[in-house]
Amino acid sequence: MHLKLLSVTALVLVGLLTSGCGDKEKKEEHYVHVDHQEKSTTFQLQDSNQTVIATLTPNGLTFNTKEPLVLINFFATWCPPCRAEIPHLANLQERYRGKLKIIGILVEEKSSEAIQEFIQTHQINYFVSNSKDNMALAKTTADMLHQPPNFSIPMMVLFVHGKYFRHYIGMIPEEMLESDIKEAIKEVQ
Fold this sequence. Notes:
Elements: H1 2-19, E1 42-46, E2 51-57, E3 60-63, E4 69-75, H2 80-95, E5 100-106, H3 112-121, E6 127-129, H4 134-144, E7 155-160, E8 163-169, H5 174-188
Parallel strand pairs: 4-5, 5-6
Antiparallel strand pairs: 1-2, 2-3, 4-7, 7-8
């Protein structure tokens, strides 16, 4: 009886082992090339005279401007430190014209007329965006800097040829910002 059971077990085992070894069907492998192109996120920033396109990249944000340095300034008209920085930013825009473009990003909803009045009252000589994309850019920038969505203002970010260079939260002295701008200009030359 043991011999019969042993023989049946051996036959089943041999059958199982040899059934997977056959070359009954030839398998073909197909390789598909998948082109992974990441969609770029763009933001249309608009003031009363022009449009600036900001594009999110792995290194920062690129801007369709001729200036190699871009300083984006997130602000609100009701914010006292934001208003206090305006003359300093206007000085820097004038001093580094052609090398630096300052872009004010309004993080509140205001009518175009109210913004124009604010610009004239505060003698702003730099680009101020009152675009529907402002808040999306603010959130994206906050994420990039590991800041909460309701970040403190004023907040500024300096980019050199679209690469992140430095950021500032809260009001900072004009001299400190100018020192960093000079350092960034050295990277461009």
